[in-house]
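Chain A, query sequence.
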Amino acid sequence: MNTAPKQSPQAPLSRTAFVAQELRRAILAGELSAGQALVEADLASTFAMSKTPVREALKTLAGAGLVTMNEYRGASVRVVDAALARQVFDMRLLLEPAAVERAVEAGFDTAPARAALTRAQEADGAGERSLENRDFHRLLYSACGNPLLIATLDGLRDQTALITVTAWRNSISWRHEAGEHLAMLEAAERGDADEARRLVESHVDSFATRALAQLEVQS
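Chain A, predicted structure.
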């Protein structure tokens, strides 16, 4: 795991935020496998810091759905299964199409979303690509004007990314998703809110079908 700080002078990270960032990247890149134990003492040694920021980072990742905390066994990387995926995709289908529709109706700068889409297409690995896709989706819905709706969808972002990289292990479908993302973006650029909503709903639903099929094969 690469622990070199990736900070800028303008936005320095706290120790806790840095550890959370690096562990998130390692989990989504597959460097830390599903079910792998995350031992505070070992991580503190790896990051050359005390156990306190490590413990807080693990709590942060548990809240994001990437880590499981057990009173007796400690922390471990969350194991993705079909039941979890169904819950996440069900929530997204209920909320994300409407959020994107509202954002397009309100109007927003789509340039950052196009940049995220480009970065996803140029990404070296599944983990990095999944993180860029996660950011792309947020850039489409974050102008919906409802902070509670945004926060709810934000709460699903890491779990969606984890489900994605898990599903991609046996079926690399990211090129298909990239085409769907481009269509969604172009609808937003045209200001076609109805079409953007339809495309987001179709995209989430079709990816859910593919991901669930892969997760059931893996189980």
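Residues 4-11 have pLDDT under 50 and may be disordered. Residues 82-218 form a domain with the Four Helix Bundle (Hemerythrin (Met), subunit A) fold (CATH 1.20.120.530).
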